[in-house]
Automatic annotation (TrEMBL):
Keywords: RNA-binding. It comes from the Eukaryota. This is Exoribonuclease phosphorolytic domain-containing protein. One of its GO terms (cellular component) is mitochondrion. Pfam families: RNase_PH (PF01138). One of its GO terms (molecular function) is 3'-5'-RNA exonuclease activity. Residues 13-68 form the Exoribonuclease phosphorolytic domain. It comes from Rotaria sordida. InterPro entries: ExoRNase_PH_dom1 (IPR001247), PNPase (IPR012162), PNPase/RNase_PH_dom_sf (IPR027408), Ribosomal_Su5_D2-typ_SF (IPR020568). The lineage of its organism: Eukaryota, Metazoa, Spiralia, Gnathifera, Rotifera. SUPFAM superfamilies: Ribosomal protein S5 domain 2-like. GO terms for biological process: mitochondrial mRNA catabolic process; mitochondrial RNA 3'-end processing.
Length: 77
């Protein structure tokens, strides 16, 4: 599941697209139980970081020039 959220109010006019991409792969979705002491999902893995970067690089050109709103894209599998 991937969803996107943006904020229309801008305090300053940035010269770049403020885009945040967060991708998480939950262990329960893959049928696994985390093997750490607390049985919780802790930090990001290298695979999750690289997948988030690939999503960022592929959707960044789709935004129009002049679009400067804070945008967050979250993906969970």
């Amino acid at each position: 599941m991937i969803y996107m959220k943006y904020k229309l109010q801008q305090l300053i006019q940035p010269s770049f697209l403020p885009l945040t991409v967060d991708y998480r792969e939950k262990a329960a979705a893959a049928g696994r139980i985390p093997t750490n002491y607390l049985r919780k999902e802790l930090g990001l893995t290298d695979h999750e970081i690289l997948t988030g970067r690939m999503i960022d690089r592929s959707i960044r050109p789709l935004f129009l020039n002049g679009y400067v709103y804070d945008t967050q894209v979250k993906g969970v599998s």
